[in-house]
Amino acid sequence: MEDGKLKIAVIGAGLTGLAAAWKLSKKHDIIMLEKEPFLGGMASSYIIPWDGKEYKITKTYHHILEGDFTTIEFIRDLGLFDGFRKKKVKQGFIHRNKIWGFSTPIEVLKFPLPLIDKVLLARFILLDSKNQDWNKLKGMNAQEWVVAKAGKNNFDTFFDHLIRNKFQTSAENISAAWLGTRFFKESSSLLKKFGWLEGGIDQIVEGLATEIKKNGGTIVTEAKISEIKDGKVIYSDSFGKKEINVDVIVSTIAPELLLKLTTDLPKDLEKRLRKIEYLCCACACFGLKEKFNLPYWSNVLDKDKPFTVIFNHTTLYEDSAPSEKSVVYISAYMSKENSLWNKSENEIAEIYTNAMENLIPGFRVLIEWRKVFKVENAEAIYSINFENPPVSFKNFYFGGIYRIYPKIRNMASALESGLEVAEKVENDFCV
To answer: How do residues 201-219 score in pLDDT, each as one tens digit?
Structure first.
């Protein structure tokens, strides 16, 4: 370290890594290493030529929830605020192979559920899920909490399926605190407005990368790290094998991936990190030649569907498709053992298309293009007694979705994790 400047390697260029590198590059020498040929992780984008114009469309669905102040601040800091918009959107459910709206009193009354259960559900969403002292729910599982507050029928109809869809496990194994946090954030936004950015979320990724480079930082894509040992990072890129000595390693990749690269962490921390489990995600993006008549957000309650959620992207992002056309995301979380995960992108697209054809006859003929993005470590599983691992050990610093509990995984929490790491580095080295 010379003149108070640290040499810092940031591993992973998702939003957490980009936020950390952006903050730290203002005072320190940064090199960011990303194994993929693109930046942004799940916030990266496709470039789609469509009707004589190029569209940048994120590979997975993203929106800005009510209260996502960190994301909005980044949009402002990057000079993008003139393109920030808010919009009231609708949600719905796929139930008994039918699309049910669930955003207006009339739609809720039409949903096939006894009135008393609808009253309990409304009270749970509007009141009980706004309890912000999540410590009171520590040690309680999601099933206990929902049944006690919303009733067993609502749990069986909605929450059991939603939690299994999200985590591929029973609600008995999932933290009530996590579920409460999720409902507080998402129900508040659905009752108000969702945020979106004209020109797409890719502008945040590009903006952060531009600022890092402007501050003197280096970003290396297709960087394959082979070892991290005693402050030395060994990696290969298109120019061959390289070794760099650094003062600090900021890892924003999944713990299991980091542990394949280094033996510098103590056994007790290594054991703790190995316990953190992830689910994979297979997200398909479809370009359709017509406007799609579906709510913005539809959760799937039917067990026979290969996907768990549908996002009618163009309903929110109005400039993401040519006039009178639309973009739709169809996605599912799954374990690595799931047979769907081991299929090719084209096979997954076909499976999703066939299921959509069964739900909405004629869906296949609407498709003008389709893409599938497979993410191996997409969502950390927040079990009942989940605890965030430490943010640092010696010269290692950790950030990412496995450190945000009980927050939900979204752009704001990813960016906040990056800022937390940067602040910890500053506090430890720059007093």
So the answer is: 999 999 999 999 999 999 9
| Confidence at residue 201, expressed as pLDDT on a 0 to 100 scale | 95
Q: Residue 12's closest CA among 233, 299, 198?
A: 233
Q: By C-alpha distance, which of 320, 333, 325, 328 is closest to 285?
A: 328
pTM for the whole structure:
0.89
364 and 304 inside one domain: yes
Collapse the DSSP code of 11 into the 3-class scheme (helix H, G, I; strand E, B; otherwise coil) and give the result.
strand
Residue burial 324-352, b: 16+ Cβ < 10 Å; e: rest: ebbbbbbbbbbeeebebbebeeeebbbbb
Place of tokens 């169809």: 330
Domain annotation covers residue 224 = yes
Range of the domain at 28: 7-42+202-274+389-429
* Same domain, residue pair 251 and 307: no
User: What stretches of 192-239 show up as alpha helix (H) in DSSP?
Assistant: 202-214
94 part of a folded domain: no
Instruction: List, in order, residues 6 or more apart from 349 with CB less than 8 Å away.
Output: 284, 370, 371, 372
pLDDT of residue 157: 87
Identify whether 337 is part of a domain.
Answer: yes
Same domain, 75 and 15: no
CA pair distance 301, 112, nearest whole angstrom: 13
Q: Are residues 145 and 291 in the same domain?
A: no
Q: What is the three-class DSSP state of 371?
A: strand
- How far apart CA 418 and CA 14 sit, in angstroms, is 10
- Classified as helix, coil or strand, 419 is helix
Which of 142, 161, 189 is the last residue before a domain boundary?
A: 189
Residue 240, by phi and psi: left (phi above 0), alpha (psi -120 to 50) or beta? left
Residue 364 pLDDT exceeds 70: yes
Quick one: 225 and 170 in the same domain? no
Q: DSSP readout, 12-45?
A: --SHHHHHHHHHHTTTSEEEEEESSSSSSGGG-E
Quickly state the pLDDT bin for 103 (edges 50, 70, 90): confident
Number of domains in the chain: 3
Question: What value does the mean pLDDT take over residues 311-338?
Answer: 95
Neighbours of 194 (CB within 10 A): 21
Report the distance separating Cα 257 and Cα 97, nearest Å.
39
- Using CA atoms, how far apart are residues 60 and 65, in angstroms rounded to an integer? 16
Are 411 and 43 contacting, i.e. CB atoms less than 8 angstroms apart?
yes
**317, 109 contact by CB (below 8 A):** no
- Tokens matching residue 353: 């298309």
User: Do 43 and 266 contact (CB within 8 A), yes or no?
Assistant: no
Residue carrying the six token digits 């007790």:
268
pLDDT (tens digit per residue) in 51-66: 999 999 999 999 998 8
Q: Is residue 2 part of a domain?
A: no
